[in-house]
Each structure stands twice: as C-alpha cells, then as structure tokens.
Queue: 4 jobs
Job 1
Amino acid sequence: MTEVLAGAASADATPGRRDVSRSSAVRRFKLMILAPLVIMLFSLLTPVLLLQLYFSFHQWTVYLSSWWNADFVAFDIFETVFTDPRFGWAVLRSLAFAGGSTIGCFVIGFLLAYLIYRPFRGQAFYYALFILPMLTVPIVISYTAQMLLDRNGPLNDILSRLTGQDLRVLWLSNPDIALLTVTLLDIWNWTPFSFIIMLAGLSSLPKDPIEAAQILGASSWRVFWEVQLPLLRPVILLALVLRFLDAMGAFPIIWGLLQGGPGTATETLGIYIYITTWQYFNVSLGAAQSYVTMVMMVVIVLAAIRLLRREKRSLDTMYAKPHGAGEAA
C-alpha cells in the first residue's frame, strides 16, 4: 500500500516538475531573443542620448565654434523651453491631434473589425481593402491631398454638387480648420492599424461565454455590451495607447502638406523641434525640447503599462471565479 501511495505521489509531482522545466525553458528562450536586441538598442541609443543631454546643458548652435567648447549653462535652456509659449501651444496641438486621430481611428477601425470578424465569403477581399490606406506612404498622401483639397479641387467640387451651393472651403489655408484637415488625413491613413488589432481581439474571444449568453436569451446588443466588450478591454486599451503614442510623433503628413502652417496652426511637437533644430539651427534648444518630450512620453507609457496590468488582473480574476466555482461544485 505504501509503495502504491509513493508511486501516486511521484506521478503527481511529475507534472509539476514538467511545468517548472517548461517555464524555465521559455524564460531562457526569451532571454536569448531579447538580450541581443536590448544590447543593440542600448549601444545605438546611449551615445545619442548622452550627446543630446550634453547639448541640453551647453549652449551651442552651428554658428558658434566647436561643439565641445560650448558654454555650460546648467538648466537655462530647459527654463527657456518651459517658458516658451510656442512650445506650450505645440504640446496642446500635439495632444489635440493625437487624441482626435486616436479616437477616430479606434471608432472606425472597431466598427470595420466588428463587421467582418465572422468568416464569410469575400472576407479576404474586404480585409485587403481596409488595410490598403496603411500601406500608402504618408508623403504620397500629403501630395495627393494638396490636389484634392485645393480651393478649386475635386472635394469642393463634389460638395458643391451635392449641396447645390458654390462651396470653396479653404481646407489647407484656413488656420481654424487646418489641424482638423491633417487629423482627418491621419485617421484615414492609420485606421487600418486599429482595425487589425481589434480584428485580432474579436477573433480570439472565447466562444463559451458568448454561447452561454445567447442560450440564456440575451440580445446581440447585450452579448456585445456585457460579454464581448469587457473581454476586449485590454485589447482596446492597447490599441488606444499604441495609436496615441504613434500620433504624438506624427511628422510626414503634416510636414509634407503644410510644414506647420498656415502660420503655426499645425505646428505640433515634432514639427516645432524640427524647425528649431534644422531651420533655426539652435541645436541645444532642440535637444532640450526633445528631452522634455521624451519624458512626457515615458510618463504616458508607464501609465499605460499600469493600466494594462490592471486590466490583465481584472480579466484573470474574471476567469478565476468560474473556475473556482466549478471546483467547489
């Protein structure tokens, strides 16, 4: 009897050792893959960041002598950045542009993903059609938009025919709507990004909770609102965060179309830093602006990681409750 119990205990312990061995192998594999990438990333970025930090504390422009002889000015350049109203407006424009683009991309991308996530004939065609804008080079979009959005261009002509009025909207030269124009172009360009993420999330949802809700007589709306949407919260948050971070650094469409104009109406952070560094040749001020922007983005990323972890814990709790109830039964 004792031998039988010992054999059973050994058999029970075997899966535990196997799980530990598997997790250890996965950890070693991740280390083998990630370690070279992290080393390469740090080896490439560290010299640049250190040089940028040097310029942030030393006043130098290309009109002065050698950069290693620049005068040390401590935090004076950062003080200039924080007291510069033009930089403050650039931050606000970037937030407005990124926020509008993120919401627009997510809403349209989610709707498109929800329409086609169930298999049907011709699904591949619509999938290819919906991701086509993301494959278009942003600078090409800018030059095409210049022709389409001209005062006498095709868009105003179509709107005039539809409304029966002679519309001549100044999409590019009116500072009141210029930021909205580039935001709409960015939404068209990057909606496929949110579409792909949400399509993957919808396709990977577990079928059991959905089928259980349908058996209990829940309507399609209640299934979506009370079952699918809570399960999609981590995916939704990931799509919003990634799109927002990318939109904060948007440059090609805005620069190719308006170069921050008319006036400073579309001068976002990326545009202003570029103008400061490469048109005004004030390298030190541009470096300090870049560091301030980087700190802002790091704070946003850390907040996003915290939110993602919280959503993961809530989902784990949600899955653990039914499991615990089943074991108790």
Job 2
Amino acid sequence: MPRGKVLNYRYITNRSVENKAGQPTGNVRARVAADSDVLEGFYKCPECGNAGRISQPFKRPVNIKCEKCGFLMKVPKLKDQLKKDKKKKK
C-alpha cells in the first residue's frame, strides 16, 4: 500500500462516450473528492478527438461540453446506461 495521504472520493468514473454515429470513440475520466462538489478529470471528444480537462460543479447525470467543437458528452448513471443497453439487445 502506498504511503502518504489517503484520498477518498464520492464519485469516480472512467467511461466510453459515443459519437453521433453511435461509435464509442471518446472517453471521460473524472472524480469528485469526498469533501468537494467539483468534478475534475479529463475527456476525449468522440466527435473531433480533442482532449480536454474537466473542472465543473458536480451534477448527475454528468454532461461535458467539448471546448473545441461544442459536442455535448452525456455520462448517464451507470444503472440507467445498463438498462438502456439491455433494451438495445432485445
């Protein structure tokens, strides 16, 4: 186990994000510290490929707008995404 300060988080995600064609070509890696209300992390836009940094108030579902092209990346709650994926398979 690493030495030093142990950080606690109330939200952590590392998710694929689909472009307009439904292809998972982008991703979002973000977290919120236990004592914070700020979502911080990184993203790769699935439309233009721009890599950017996230620092915004935490609200679910998480929505991130690409700084370059303006594409809105939606990161739904995981249980909602699993339900949606299950319906697609039927």
Job 3
Amino acid sequence: MFNLTFRRRKVSTEFQKSRSIDTHFLSSIYKALLKGEEVEFRPKIRQGVGIVYDLFGIEVSIDKLKNFYDRGLIEVAGEISFPSCPICGDTCLHLFLACPECGSRNIEKKDLLVHYDCGYMDSVEAFQTSREGVYRCPKCGGELKRVGIDYGRPGFGFICKDCRTVFQIPLVEVECERNHKIRVQQLEVKKFPVYRLSEESKKISRIFEIVEIIAVKLKERGIDAVTFAHVRGLSGVSYTIPIYVKGNPSLIIEIAPEEIMDERYPLLMTIEAVDVPDSIMIIILPSSFRPELESIFNPEKIKIIKVENIYRSVDEIVDEIVEVIGRRIYAET
C-alpha cells in the first residue's frame, strides 16, 4: 500500500512539474516576442546530468525539448556536436593530463629552463641562486649567465612529480562519469539539435496577450489580479499561474484554448487545484471541450467557464470571473 501511494505521489509530482514548465515556456515566449527577441535553445553539458537546454532560465532535459518539438512548438535550426565516450555514449567527460613517460597524473606546470652544455632541463626555480640573473645547473654545477648562450627559456612545460620527467606536451586522457578511460583520438562525436520557436508557438503565445488583457479589466473592477504569478503547492512544486487573485481563498485562473490542450490537461488541472492550498480554480475552456471530461473536476474546487472563442470573449470571461469571485468583492470595489 505504501509503495502504491509513493508511486502515485511521484507520478503526481512529475505531472505538476511538466505543467509548470509548459506554462513557464509559453509565458516566456510571449514576453520574448513582445521585446522582439530572437529565441534559440542551444544544448550544453551539465556535469552529472548530460545534455540540457536553457529554457528561459530553467534547465530542462533533451526529452522535454523533444516533447515541445513533437507538439510543433519548436523547430530544428541547426546542430551542435559534443565529444562522447565510445563505450557508453556519455557526454559528461573529464579531461586529465598525464606524464607521457610513466602515465602518472601527478604533474606540475612550470616555467622551464634548459642548460645547453649538459642538456639538463628543469623548472626555473631549480636553477635559481642568491644572485639575481645568475643561475646554476643542479646537474653539473655549471654557472649560467647568458640567455641564448649558456641557457635557454623554452617557456612553460610540465614536470612529473613521480618519475621527474620534464616534458612540454602532456598525455591527454579522457574519463567519462562511468569511469571509462579513453584517449582523445578515440572519442566519438554526438550531434544534438539547436531549436528555435516555430510559427505554431508564436500563435499559441497569443493566449498570454489575452491573460494580460483580462488582468487589466479585472483591475479596472477593483480586483488585484497578478499575471504569471509563481505559487508553491503543498508538494513543493512551483506553479506559474496565468492569473492569480490572492485572498481567502485565493483564485487561480487558468485559460486553455484548444491549441494547448492535450489528453493530460484535465488531470493536470485537477492535481494543481488540489495541490495549491486555500484556493479555488477557474478554468476558461472552449465550448468544444468534451462534457464527459468535466466530470473529472470537483465543482467545489474547480469552476468552469466555457466560451465559443476565447480570443473574442474577453468581456464575457471577465463578467463570469467577477460572478464567481462573488458579489461581495465586486460591491466593495
């Protein structure tokens, strides 16, 4: 019984997160388009996770972007290649420098000096004496005064702390997070898409213009409506509420034109309504919404407003919202 309850709670939380990301995505599109910004989603590597995308300030998995792509909200604009492990395909790679002689990773980067007569090379510090500008070879004891004649300064290099080998080009090793060790030449290359907004997503973002208009009209009637408010539920999930009226109870107003509804929508709204405490939800739906699905909603918790065309019914929607809020709130404003 406990395991079943845990699984249900886990599925519920996943649905809530999915809904929250969807709302964040669509509201952010609207804001970006208002500013005339070009929007592109580029893959990047997050160590311990893999490939992620920055979705207007929220990092999401490649699967979430594929979901948006499958729904026609984004389209492929190009590709970016990342090195990957040839054994497991992992893109979370760590680079290591090693001694080419003994393979030890215990190396130091140093400014090198070479004594021409005996050929000994070491760090500059190893040759230094108490006299400024005068060096002494730690191998043969020869005094070095003239650069280019007695000694040379080849630049930076590496010294192995284990076998004392001095070298300028280290051995480059790569290790993935599954502990597979490979050479750079063995790496595979994996391509990941760069996405941009589709024309469909730009059409859907119109809903957020409606949100702003409804909020303005509610404020004109004395109702303090906040758009795209972030509200945390009992589960800990943060929701982006299209229109939120704080009170006791608070009012959550969700707007759902046909373009953004899918088979998950009724369940997601039911979960959200239960998760946000001391609240009543109003869902504005198109008249085409199937009546049999309305039975999922608890009428004490969720009120439904159905209109023929959401984009052309703003005044009707506002009147209905005011009526649901109650004559007392309307009369006081």
Job 4
Amino acid sequence: MSEQRSAESLYAVVNRMVVLMQASETLKAKCAHDNASLGVVVTDLGADFHFKLAKGEISGGPGGAKESAISISLTRDALDRLLSGGLDPESAYMNGTLYLRGSEWVGQEFLRYMPDIIAAYKAAKAGN
C-alpha cells in the first residue's frame, strides 16, 4: 500500500528524489547527451509531477506532466510499486496498469533511467 496519501506528501517525496538525482554523478553522466522528460499523473490523488534529464542536468518537481515529452498515468499504489521496483514498467503498460501519452519509442528509451529513479525513490521514502 502506498504511503502517499495526499498530493502534498507525494510532492515532498518527489522533491527529495530530485535533490538525490541531482547529486548523482552517474546519472548526470548517463543523461549528458540526452534531452528526456517524463510526466507522471497520479489519478487517484489528482497530482502530477515531472522529471527532466537533459545535457547532464536533472530537474523536476510538482506539475509539468503535460509539458513533458511523454507522460504516464497511474494510481498511487501502482506508482509506489513501480518506483519501489516491484512493478515492471513494460508489463504495467501492456496490462493497462499505467497509460502512456506520447511515443512508445521515447518511453522505451526512458527505461534506462528507471534504476536511478527507483534508487532515488527508495532513498527519498527512507528520508535519506
């Protein structure tokens, strides 16, 4: 069960994730030549946020899902399972647990960042 019971508690975790991702030299190197953005809409919280990884810089936070190159829509429980590593993104898309807006190809390309995003989520939830 997701610990994110409100948009505000989710945004607090997202903001911590962004700080952690910005501190990752590995992630900065991985996105040094990219221009990727992902929006996330959490349907049962009425919340959305985004991540942008471009030219070695990482940004993100509440809002911005509609302006992102791709976005996904899912419930808070599905988001928690996805970002905890317990839900495979491709399987979730194929079985309708998450919905993709934008190019499937771009979505596939974004998967290379999932291990870094998952690590940031776990650390942010733990308060690190």
